User: Which sequence fits this backbone?
C-alpha cells in the first residue's frame, strides 16, 4: 500500500504490517519493567467492527433491517451508520489505521481474526486482560432511527459474545446499551448479563439522552443487583453546534471527549443517582483524568450555593465522584507533574483509577505511562495497572504454573 | 453483483446499461417528438468521487493534497462526510450500486459517457451537472477541507471535464465559509467554457447575505452567472433527526434547506441589491415556493420594517426567480399544481431537471403530460426557459 506524502521524495510504500513488530519497543519496556510479576488489565481497547459487518449483520433479527444492512455493505460498500471524515490519522502518518487490513492471521472468521490480533498487542505490552470495544459504533447514539441502534447493537453484542468472548478468556467487554430505547437497555442487561466475558455494560457518551431520566432506573437497579459496573465511553461529535466552531481535530479531540463525560457525570451526580443506587459502580473512559478535579471543584462550589437543586445529595458532589472508577487514557503528561499528582490524590487513584490503552487508536497509552510516574508507590502502580480492575470485575489470573502460581502476560 | 433480499433469494445483476435502464424514457421521447424541441436538463448529477484522485492534484497546499490522497486508501475515513441514506431502498433501486458494472469506452471520461446516455434517452440537448457526494461537504465541520476539495472539484470540472463535451455544463461549488476564496474561484474559473454558474449546497448554516458574499454576488452578477441553491437534507440536524424515516426527512428537509436561504435572500433585500442576478432553486419541487410566497407576504405586511430594502411583496420577487421542477409534486387534484405553476410564473420561470440518477428522478414527460399546460408552456419549461437562463445556444448543437 502506498502512503502518500506531501512530497514525492518522502513517499512511503508499506508491503506488510505486523502488530508485534510495531510494538517491539513496548515489549522491551514490558521485559525491563517485569510486567510478568503482576496482572495488567486494560479497561479500554478497540477493534474495528466495521471490518466484519457482513458477519455482524447476519445476527440482526428484523429481516428488513438485516436486508438494509447487507445491501449497504454488499452493494454500496458503506456501513449503515454515519461516517465522519476527520484528521485522526494525520494524512496517513499514523499508518496502523490504514495498513491494518494487510495484517495476516490464521483465521478467516472475523471474531477469531480480531482475537488473534488483540492477543498480539496484549502480549507485546504485557496486558493480561482487555475490555474490547467497537470503534465506529461509539457514535451510534446519534443514529436517527432508534430501531436500527437497537437491532445493530444486539447483533454486535451477540457476535461479540459468540465469536470473541466465548472462546478467549483474556478478552472481556462491557456490552453496548442501546440507550435511545430504555426498555431495550433493560432487555440487553437481562439477556447478556451472565454471558462469558461480560464484565459490565456501556453507555456510549455521544448522544442526547439525559442519563438521569426515570426510564433508565430499572436498568440501573438491575445492573446494581448484578454487581457489575456501568461504564461511560466518551467520544466527540464535530458536528454538534459547539464543536463546529473549531477548525482542527486536535481542538475537537481535546475538548470533545471530556465534554461528554462531564455532561453525563453532572446529570448523575446532581440528580442523586448515586444516592438512589449506592452500590452502582460507574467507570469513566477515554476522557483522561484532568477533567475530574475540575468538575469536582466546579460542582462542589455551585452545590454549596444551590443545594435545593440537588435535594437527594447528602454529601458533596466530589464525595460521590471520588467513589467512581476512572480509566487513565489519554493520561495528561504535562510539564507540571504536580497537577497530575494532585489529580491522582483527588480521585483516590490508588483504589479508583484503572489503566487503559485505547489501542490501536492514534493516542494510545502503554503501561509505562503509569508505571514510570515518579510519585506513585510500587503498590499504587500495580493497583492502577491491574489490581483495581481485577477487583472491580472479579478477575482471576488466566494461567498458572505447575505449582499453581499465577503467571502474567509480561 | 448480488443484491441481498429480506426473503430467501438474493438477486444477481451481471450488467448495467443506462440506455437500457431508460428505454421507457426513450420510447416516451420518440412518441412525444422530443427530437423537435430543445430540452435542457437543468439538474443532473455525476459521481465525481470516481475522479477524486485526478481532482486532488489541483489542491495547492502540499499538506492537504497529501491528506486527500491518503484518504483514498482502503480503511481510511473519507474526507467527505457520509450521512445515512436509504435512497436505494435496500437495493430495490439498483442503479446506485449496479452502475459500477456499466461499461464505458476508455477514450471518453466515464462521467461524460454516462451523462450522455441518460440525456440521449430522455431527449435532452444540454445537461447542467452537479456533483453528488461533494454536496455533503456543506456539512463537513472541518471547513478548510470543504474549501480545498471544492476548489479541486471546480478546477477539475472546468479545466478537464467540460472541454470534452460542449453540451455538458456545470456549476462551480461555493464553499461559503471562505468567501474571499469563492471570489478567487470565480475570477479563475467562471469564464471557462461550460461554466454556467455557481451553486450553494443548501444544507448549511452560513448566511447568504453575510458581508463577505457581497463581492462574490457582485462578481456573479457582472458575469451573468446563475446562482443556484441546491436543496438537500442533513439528517443530523436536530429537527430532522426527530424523524426516523429517510423519505420523510427528504420530503421536509430538502425544501426546508432552500426555504431558509430564500427567506434570508428576500428579507435582507438581496433582490434589490443585485437586481439582475439570476437565482435558481433546485431539487425542491414547486409546492414549497407557493407556500412560502403566502407565508412571507403575510409576515412582511405585518412587519415591513423587518425588510427595509424591499420595495415589493416577497412573492413578487419570488415570481421573478427560477425554479427547477424536480421532484414535481403530483397532487390528486391537478388544479393545486396549476395554481403553484401560476404563482411562480412557470411559463417563463420554471425549468425542467431530471435529477438523474436520484431515487426520485423525473423524465421530461412529467412536464409534457401535464393537462393544464399549453404546447408553448411545455416547450418553455422543458428547454426554452433554461436556454434563456443559462444563455445556451439554440438550433443545431
Assistant:
Amino acid at each position: 500500500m502506498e502512503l502518500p506524502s506531501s512530497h514525492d521524495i518522502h513517499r512511503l510504500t508499506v508491503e506488510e504490517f505486523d502488530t508485534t513488530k510495531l510494538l517491539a519497543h513496548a515489549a522491551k519496556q514490558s521485559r525491563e519493567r517485569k510486567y510478568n510479576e503482576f496482572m495488567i488489565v486494560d479497561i479500554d481497547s478497540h477493534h474495528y467492527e466495521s471490518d466484519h459487518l457482513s458477519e455482524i449483520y447476519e445476527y440482526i433479527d428484523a429481516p428488513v433491517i438485516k436486508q438494509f444492512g447487507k445491501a449497504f455493505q454488499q452493494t454500496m460498500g458503506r456501513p449503515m451508520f454515519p461516517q465522519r471524515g476527520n484528521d485522526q490519522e494525520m494524512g496517513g502518518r499514523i499508518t496502523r489505521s490504514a495498513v491494518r487490513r494487510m495484517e495476516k492471521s490464521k483465521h478467516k472468521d472475523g471474531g477469531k481474526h480480531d482475537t488473534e490480533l488483540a492477543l498480539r498487542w496484549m502480549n507485546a505490552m504485557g496486558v493480561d486482560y482487555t475490555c474490547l470495544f467497537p470503534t465506529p459504533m461509539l457514535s451510534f447514539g446519534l443514529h436517527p432511527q432508534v430501531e436500527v441502534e437497537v437491532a445493530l447493537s444486539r447483533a454486535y453484542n451477540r457476535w461479540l459474545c459468540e465469536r470473541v468472548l466465548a472462546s478467549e478468556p483474556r478478552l472481556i467487554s462491557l456490552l453496548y446499551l442501546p440507550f435511545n430505547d430504555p426498555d431495550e437497555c433493560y432487555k440487553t442487561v437481562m439477556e447478556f448479563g451472565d454471558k462469558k466475558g461480560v464484565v459490565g455494560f456501556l453507555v456510549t457518551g455521544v448522544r442526547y439522552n439525559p442519563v438521569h431520566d426515570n426510564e433508565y432506573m430499572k436498568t440501573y437497579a438491575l445492573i446494581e443487583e448484578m454487581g457489575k459496573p456501568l461504564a461511560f465511553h466518551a467520544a466527540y461529535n464535530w458536528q454538534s453546534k459547539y464543536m463546529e466552531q473549531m477548525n482542527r481535530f486536535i481542538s475537537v479531540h481535546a475538548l470533545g471527549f471530556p465534554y461528554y463525560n462531564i455532561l453525563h457525570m453532572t446529570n448523575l451526580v446532581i440528580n442523586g443517582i448515586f444516592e438512589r443506587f449506592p452500590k452502582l459502580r460507574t467507570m469513566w473512559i477515554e476522557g483522561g483524568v484532568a477533567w475530574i478535579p475540575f468538575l469536582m471543584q466546579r460542582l462542589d462550589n455551585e452545590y454549596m450555593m444551590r443545594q435545593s437543586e440537588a435535594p437527594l445529595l447528602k454529601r458533596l458532589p466530589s464525595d460521590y465522584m471520588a467513589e467512581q472508577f476512572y480509566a487513565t487514557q489519554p493520561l495528561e503528561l504535562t510539564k507540571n507533574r504536580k497537577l497530575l499528582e494532585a489529580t491522582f490524590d483527588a480521585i483516590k487513584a490508588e483504589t479508583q483509577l484503572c489503566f487503559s490503552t485505547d489501542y490501536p487508536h492514534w493516542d494510545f497509552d502503554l503501561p509505562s505511562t503509569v508505571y514510570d510516574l515518579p510519585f506513585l508507590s510500587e503498590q499504587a502502580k500495580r493497583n492502577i495497572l491491574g489490581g483495581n480492575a481485577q477487583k472491580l470485575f472479579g478477575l482471576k489470573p488466566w494461567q498458572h504454573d505447575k505449582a499453581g502460581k499465577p503467571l502474567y502476560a509480561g | 453483483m448480488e443484491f441481498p433480499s429480506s426473503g430467501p433469494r438474493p438477486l444477481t445483476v451481471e450488467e448495467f446499461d443506462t440506455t437500457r435502464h431508460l428505454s421507457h424514457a426513450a420510447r416516451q421521447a420518440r412518441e412525444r417528438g422530443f427530437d423537435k424541441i430543445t430540452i435542457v436538463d437543468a439538474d443532473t448529477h455525476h459521481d465525481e468521487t470516481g475522479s477524486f484522485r485526478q481532482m486532488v492534484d489541483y489542491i495547492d497546499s502540499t499538506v492537504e493534497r497529501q491528506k486527500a490522497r491518503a484518504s483514498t486508501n482502503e480503511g481510511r475515513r473519507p474526507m467527505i462526510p457520509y450521512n445515512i441514506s436509504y435512497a436505494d431502498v435496500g437495493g430495490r433501486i439498483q442503479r446506485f450500486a449496479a452502475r459500477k458494472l456499466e461499461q464505458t469506452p476508455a477514450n471518453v471520461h466515464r462521467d461524460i459517457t454516462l451523462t450522455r446516455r441518460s440525456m440521449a434517452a430522455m431527449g435532452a440537448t444540454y445537461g447542467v451537472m452537479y456533483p453528488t457526494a461533494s454536496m455533503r461537504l456543506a456539512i463537513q465541520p472541518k471547513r478548510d477541507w470543504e474549501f480545498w476539495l471544492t476548489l479541486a472539484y471546480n478546477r477539475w470540472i472546468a479545466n478537464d471535464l467540460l472541454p470534452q463535451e460542449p453540451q455538458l455544463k456545470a456549476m462551480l461549488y461555493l464553499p461559503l465559509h471562505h468567501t474571499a476564496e469563492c471570489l478567487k474561484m470565480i475570477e479563475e474559473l467562471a469564464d471557462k467554457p461550460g461554466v454556467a454558474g455557481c451553486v450553494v449546497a443548501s444544507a448549511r448554516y452560513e448566511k447568504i447575505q453575510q458581508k463577505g458574499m457581497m463581492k462574490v454576488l457582485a462578481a456573479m452578477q457582472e458575469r451573468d452567472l446563475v446562482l443556484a441553491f441546491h436543496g438537500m437534507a442533513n439528517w443530523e440536524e436536530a429537527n430532522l433527526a426527530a424523524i426516523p424515516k429517510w423519505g420523510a426527512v427528504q420530503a421536509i428537509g430538502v425544501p426546508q434547506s432552500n426555504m431558509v436561504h430564500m427567506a434570508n435572500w428576500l428579507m435582507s433585500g438581496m433582490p434589490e441589491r443585485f437586481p439582475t442576478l439570476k437565482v435558481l432553486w433546485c431539487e425542491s419541487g414547486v409546492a414549497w415556493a407557493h407556500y412560502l410566497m403566502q407565508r412571507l407576504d403575510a409576515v412582511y405586511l405585518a412587519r415591513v420594517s423587518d425588510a427595509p430594502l424591499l420595495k415589493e411583496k416577497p412573492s413578487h420577487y419570488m415570481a421573478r426567480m427560477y425554479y427547477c421542477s424536480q421532484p414535481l409534486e403530483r397532487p390528486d387534484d391537478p388544479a393545486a399544481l396549476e395554481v403553484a405553476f401560476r404563482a411562480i410564473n412557470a411559463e417563463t420561470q420554471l425549468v425542467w431537471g431530471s435529477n438523474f440518477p436520484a431515487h426520485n428522478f423525473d423524465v421530461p414527460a412529467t412536464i409534457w403530460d401535464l393537462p393544464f399546460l399549453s404546447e408553448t408552456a411545455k416547450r418553455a419549461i422543458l428547454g426554452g426557459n433554461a436556454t434563456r437562463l443559462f444563455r445556451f445556444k439554440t438550433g443545431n448543437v
Remarks:
- DSSP finds 18 helices and ten strands in chain B.
- The longest helix of chain B spans residues 246-267.
- The domain at 39-390 of chain B is CATH 3.20.20.140 (TIM Barrel).
- Chain B has a mean pLDDT of 94.
